[in-house]
Amino acid sequence: MTAVPETVSDKMPDPVGPDDAACDEAVSVVLVDDHALVRAGVRTSLGAAVRVVGEAADVEQAVAVVHEQRPAVVLLDVHLPGGAGGGGAEVITRCADRRDVTRFLALSVSDAAEDVVAVIRAGARGYVTKAIDGAALTAAVVRVAGGDAVFSPRLAGFVLDAFGTAGADVATTDDELDRLTAREREVMRLIARGYTYREAASELFISVKTVETHVSAVLRKLQLSNRNELTRWAADRRLL
Amino acid sequence: MTQATVRPVLLRPPRGRWLGGVAVAVAAHLGWPVGWVRVGFVVLTLFGGTGAFVYLFWWVTVPTGDPHDPAHTQPAAATRLVRRQPLLVPGRRLPVTDIGVGVILVVGAGLAVAYRAGARVQVGWLLAALLVVGGLALAWSQLDAGQRRRMSQVAGGRTPVPVLAVAGGVLLAGAGGLLFVGQVTGRELAPAVVVQSVVVALAILAGVGLALAPWWLRLVRELGDERVAREREAQRADIAAHLHDSVLQTLALIRTRSGDPVEVARMARAQERELREWLYADRPAPGESLAAAVRAVVAEVEDCRVGPDGQPVAVDVVVVGDAVPDGAADALLAATREALVNAVTHGRAPVSLYLEVRAEALEVFVRDRGDGFDLDQVAPDRFGVRESILGRVRRRGGTASVTSSSRRGTEVHVVMPTTRERTGDSSA
């Protein structure tokens, strides 16, 4: 829906760009976190490409604000009070009717695999930790608004751990949900090594768009895979 | 603060006991010699059996435990609430006294039956009473959960000992009851009457049991609920204690040094790392996890090294898989450490570390976003990269490479075959 300028979609958007012109095109964002201090910090660190239209501190507030404001992106903490106790994943589930308008990006301090898997499987388009700097977070929000997935190195590490790194266990067709293709695994490994999408693209001699396609495919597998080890793996593996 | 008169708690210790440990417990509690207490019990028994009665009473009511355990004497706030279970309870390997008591009771029962059948002696009353009391004591001793745990540990898990003891106690008490009845009525007990009375007794017991069952079930459930609540409370207290110990102290330090941003950043990073480890990690034993070893190396580099601008540099760690470290892993760790030090001190943040553990190889990437350097330009006498990283890895049969460019920073890539794969390898 929101037209994303190609320059912003790249790695480093200018956080202090001319905001008078960008105001209409700025991505509308709702911040959901139970700590007011964190919301304030995130709000000030976000660049001009992003406009905060609402905040919420618990599950009920979040669901109400999302339905009212219809933001393009919701920055969502994994652990939230209220509701049925489901936290961020519950917010995503209860906002399922807004899925064609609103996309969710999980923002958490948690390293626990079960948190990551729960919120991704509920439908979040990415997972970043709160240690992320303002420019990278802004870029991530814009990327999610454009329909792409955002994988931090850590999330890529989770994926590799969950789907296995053994060379023989490779998907041969794209619609196989339980295994990664060789290319997807290469992309995941580069992201886990700290490469940006653009660096990964030039390393593999493919376009940034192709990298984004691969990452989105991996996200889809993470969300839809029936691989029942995935949930068990996450529950067993409290260790990052 | 006068704490001269802190008495050990009245608990029956698992070791040093002759019978039920009551004498040892009393001696420890009062600070008297055990021998005197034992003599006291024997002497008191001569006066109408008082000593024996008191002994039995305490045997039933005083729980087992170590009276000198500091957990009982320290104030509750100063102790770790979630106490670690001892791996093996020191004490006797076999419940000798329990077996002894059981044997005595069985012999007594046999004698009573013999008296009933043959010679009539006036001690019949006494024996019957002893039988009932002994049987009940044996059954009741099973109420003591600590003792039961000890027994099951002695025999290695689930044992028939408690069940046997209860069954034996019930049997003995029943036999004693029948003897009593025979004594009172003064007639021989015909087998038909015995069967009849047993059936009647069982029927009454079943009726009473059915009537009391709901109450008993509720009691059990409440007990379970209470135990869960207590565990949760203990866990919460443990977390609170940890927060107090480390986090609050770090925060206080940060406040006092708020003028020194470098130091504050370093402390915050160290505290974050520690808290993360505490919350999310499995806390593996030392030497069992390569992932934990890598994290320790990262922690050391983060704490002790600063970047070229004097600022501490955070390292982004991603680990996939885990293994028990071996010789190859040690070389890998040493090379990783060297690469990290180089990246932190000469490169530019963010520094990334990626470790992948596969069945056939360990693979590490260390990357920084600095201006890069040309390996050929480094003077041969500079030991760093050439010797500490490349040489060390190659000697262990691994491969290492450094790619560096001014645009993309420097990346050190180390591959170390695992020991299993290198069994046929003769080169050192």
What does this structure look like?
- The complex is a heterodimer of chains A (240) and B (428).
- By secondary structure, chain A is an alpha/beta fold.
- Chain A is built from twelve helices and six strands.
- The termini of chain A are far apart.
- Residues 1-23 of chain A have low confidence and may be disordered.
- Chain B has 428 residues and is of the alpha+beta class.
- Chain B contains 13 helices and five strands.
- Chain B has helices at 22-30, 34-46, 50-61, 70-73, 96-117, 124-140, 145-154, 161-185, 191-256, 261-280, 290-304, 327-346, 384-395; strands at 315-320, 351-357, 361-368, 399-405, 409-417.
- In chain B, strand 4 (399-405) and strand 5 (409-417) form a beta hairpin.
- The longest helix of chain B is centred in the middle third of the chain and has 66 residues, at 191-256.
- The two termini of chain B are 66 Å apart.
- Classes of the chains: A alpha/beta (240), B alpha+beta (428).
